[in-house]
Queue: 2 jobs
Job 1
Amino acid sequence: MAVHKILGGKVRLYQRPGTPHWQCAARFDGKNYRKTTKEESLSLAKEFAEDWYLTLCGKARVGELKNEKTFKHAARQFEQEFEIITGGTRSPVYVGGHKRRLKNYLVPYFGDMGLSEITGGKVQEYRIYRQTNSVARFGRENKNYGPPAPSTIHQEIVCLRQVLKTAIRHGWLTHLPDLSMPYETARKVRHRAWFSQEEYEQLYKATRRRAGENKGKRYEWETAQLHDFVLFMANTGLRPDEAYKLQYRDVAIVEDYDTDETILEIEVRGKRGVGFCKSMPGAVRPFQRLVKRNDPEPTDLVFPQSHLTLLNTILDEEGLKFDRDGNRRTAYSLRHSYICFRLMEGADIYQVAKNCRTSVEMIEKHYAAHIKTSINAAAVNVRRVKKHKPVEEKKKRQR
């Protein structure tokens, strides 16, 4: 391999096998630096190498020459590891979200910083930068966007923390900086949109009416399926994605020993793996109609099509699309309604959480806090009888 030295041997030029381009190398503070000149001509490569070396000298003089791994390098390593290690356990959408946050926000801001330079103060400056600089998205450069939501910035900080933990595992960083919010305030807990008993009755009457109007017409099957979907979801508490994965062989009509009622026992496959659900009696007749209407095989899907467009149309027509706080109602709101109805009827919160494949903490935070029946008036409205002091003691004190 041919090697040429310039600037008194401070810079070396060489060619790697299989490439016509010249490479340049130099040494600063015991560390080697290399860069391709992208030039095939030796004379042009020498000019490039001289400019590159002088640039390194200037950076070294002002302290900008990094002798450690940069955030960009750690982010690249994180991307390689994360998708492989979490394969099958993390949604591709979640993995893609981290890649997008790194590409669009974190690497452009922290990319050239050394890992030790990323301190709690730098992270706070990043939060301020994101709040005061709107970023055009989806390729629409001329549209003005407001500051991102707090949850968006939180997700970016989570991604930043995972990159820094990757650097710690590889020995590129000694400790994790303080990434917490310095002026954290108590945030309002927003409840999830659900239907009250009156609103739920209004909804299923509207879907039943729509199904009756389309009987014998083109959309008879779709409207009938939607009506049964609404009743089925509000009486089982399934997530929409769980309902769309449900097969007929996963559902069994049984006589419940504890309640002496006919219910559905459902084997649920969703984001929490395989779980089980026992429905309310109100889910039995909609399921029987589904079986009669579709004459299915055991492996057929219970809901082979999504009826969200029709559901949104009916919600808009009935004025039910938003609750009084402006929260948007979706098919997920039927699950939230199921949980609220069970709590209002006095069901045990642990059993509700187990049947819905969630945690008691989530139910207490997003559901129980805004349900009036969760407050026991007899325990709150306690009145203690005040003891009156004898008259003789009062007279003695007056003396």
Job 2
Amino acid sequence: MAEPMDELLARAVLLREQAMRRLETLVNAESPSGDAGRIDVVNRELEAAYTAVGARAERVPGADGDHLVCHWPGGPERSGAEHAGSGDGHILMIGHSDTVFPAGTTAERPFRLEPDGDTVTGPGVFDMKGSLVEVELAMRLLADTGSRPFRPVRLVVVNDEEIGSPDGRRLVAEHAEGAVAVLGLEAPLPGGALKTGRRGVARIRIDVEGVSVHAGLDAALGVSAIDELVDQLTALRAAVPAPPAAELNVGTVQGGTRANVVSGHARAELGLRFADQEAETAALAAVESLVPIRAGARISTTRLSHRPAWADDPANPLAAELIRLAGALGLEPGTGTSGGAGDTNHTGAAGIPTADGLGPEGGGAHSVTEHASVRSLLHRAALLAAYLGGHAAAAADKENS
């Protein structure tokens, strides 16, 4: 296995400048969540890139512009391979095209190669436009070596991951149907570790309606929506499981009009995180079963987004395969659980063999220090090509013969 792995990596290095040009184009083509026009520019770039390496690409209309789905045909099945991708079905890769940065950010911080010759910076370079380039490079490596994926591959690139994939999740669910392995293209954990579990997350909005009156003349006739909301939030602190099982963050609070008016409306947006299914059930039940404390107050809750907890499995067989392949490239990635949530929460929680964190190493996601390693991008592209090309299956065939 070492020789073909060496060839993949050597070819990846030769494609460095091509990958850099693509990454610069994607980073400087800003794509904030909800900006359909800018996301369309990125989609056109990706569609052309992936089509050139054998994909059948399709645009899927969404609430805030198109999502992108790509299909690559698979080659002949390898018999006798005991691994996470054996049996009928396809391999699913999951990524996203949106970033958290507002339009205009690149005017101050455009794509840049730092003096060390390896570090690239710019909004979205790490989360996750480097990963999108990585996919193109992996498929190019397979084509250049006369190979093809050993089974059909699908790539889903949603345009709303950074706001919880409220629309994109339907595509993830649709294409996860029948998948035998799911590769998440999010950034790895520090040190390059793969993600084999993720905390669940939910965004909940609480709306409180009170009775608005003059605070001086008719206070007794009013019902303060703000007071009701404050008391409800205090009660929730006690009702939601304590950290580390669950965490409750009150992200925003709004309400009232003037100091001399009893507030008739108040609203809060909450962020919930949970480590496992038990904590998730308890936390969501606490938030969604609120009842008014004050006579005359009304409360409603809206689940804005939700990703279920994906419990960590240290023995994750798909991650184990990837780690074996990485070893042939001189990499030693570990595994771990991410405190953040992503689209692989859905596939991991559903029991589909899933490994995330296959993007290039770097850091500073969602910040002015965001950066990624070009060297890591090339290594991870070779790793992705090796897995998709059936190197793990070939090794299993050899061991079982």
